[in-house]
Design goal:
By secondary structure, the chain is α+β, with helices and mostly antiparallel strands. The protein contains eight helices and 13 strands. Strands 6-5-4-3-13-12-11-10-9 form a nine-stranded antiparallel β-sheet, covered by helices on one side. The chain has a two-stranded antiparallel sheet with strand order 1-2. The chain has a two-stranded antiparallel sheet with strand order 7-8. Helix 1 crosses helix 3, helix 3 runs antiparallel to helix 8 and helix 7 runs antiparallel to helix 8. It is globular and about 50 Å long. It starts with a helix and ends in an 8-residue tail after the last strand.
């Protein structure tokens, strides 16, 4: 039985008793009170100007955590749980792929984008846009991955086997000036994160990306926080650890310190950025 099958078996088992849940909460609270919560400081934003930058304190909420035999799950297990649920949760459909990004340390409005299958794109609150207006973006501002444009059809045709997906990432070549050093080397971590965070990847590909990330050395689970499990991954370019909050049951990244932005670059932040993605048939009124 491989790791994914083992996690699927665990997910199919009956829910734990109320007593087991209470004991798990008590253990988690003791760990938080013992000072094991992680601390981060400062901002690191290469290649992109953020509307709001400054120091931020990340608040950790003690919430219920999934367990494996009564013990808190590892980061690898969280990612494998998400892989199972990704396969069971179809992505949905619509006319536009709608992404909302909000810098939680700022009162600035969220940055939004709507991308149609033909590559046409509309944005709101991107730096340089008219305040509050939805405008059509230039043709160059379309879906991007590893320093190059990527189409809906290309994303839908990606390999659904983790090793094959990593091999595709290694082979993909974009514009080196738009890539990080690790992407140029073919290291897959940043690309895999983009596939599960911002891009309209289908369920089977998302599952493969979660599984591939689960095999990344150094993945750690910092515990339950509001909305999911807080994981840290080593930055392949040698910077601060990358942190994400994953809701494994929805197979979604709900907050992250690393995301794609509308020019295809990667935004790094010491504070979390919330990310919401959905298919929609509605496009707000566009400024002419």
């Amino acid at each position: 039985m491989d790791d994914l099958e083992e996690i699927a078996t665990l997910l199919d088992e009956p829910e734990p008793s109320a007593g087991a849940v209470a004991r798990g909460r008590e253990r988690l609270e003791r760990r938080v009170l013992a000072g094991r919560a992680r601390r981060r400081a400062g901002w690191f934003v290469p290649g992109v100007a953020l509307a709001a930058a400054g120091a931020v304190a990340t608040v950790v909420f003690a919430t219920g955590a999934p367990t494996n035999g009564g013990a808190p799950v590892t980061g690898k297990e969280v990612l494998l749980m998400a892989a199972v649920h990704a396969e069971r949760t179809p992505q949905g459909s619509g006319t536009y792929w709608h992404v909302t990004r909000r810098w939680l340390a700022s009162d600035a409005p969220p940055i939004e984008s709507w991308t149609r299958r033909d590559g046409k794109r509309w944005t709101r609150a991107v730096p340089g846009d008219h305040a509050g207006a939805v405008i059509q973006a230039p043709d160059s501002k379309t879906l991007r991955l590893k320093g190059a444009k990527v189409s809906f059809e290309e994303l839908e045709a990606l390999p659904t086997d983790p090793e094959a997906l990593k091999a595709w990432i290694v082979a993909r070549k974009g514009k080196e000036t738009d890539m990080s050093a690790s992407e140029i080397r073919g290291e897959p971590t940043l690309t895999l994160l983009a596939l599960i965070t911002d891009l309209p990847t289908p369920a089977a590909v998302r599952s493969a990306a979660f599984r591939a990330l689960a095999a990344t050395p150094g993945v750690e689970n910092a515990g339950a926080v509001e909305g999911g499990q807080r994981l840290s991954l080593p930055d392949p370019d040698g910077g601060m650890d990358i942190e994400v909050v994953i809701d494994p049951e929805k197979a979604r990244v709900v907050r992250a310190t690393l995301i794609l932005v509308d020019d295809g670059d990667m935004a790094f932040s010491a504070g979390f950025i919330s990310v919401t993605t959905e298919w929609t048939d509605q496009l707000p009124a566009v400024k002419s």
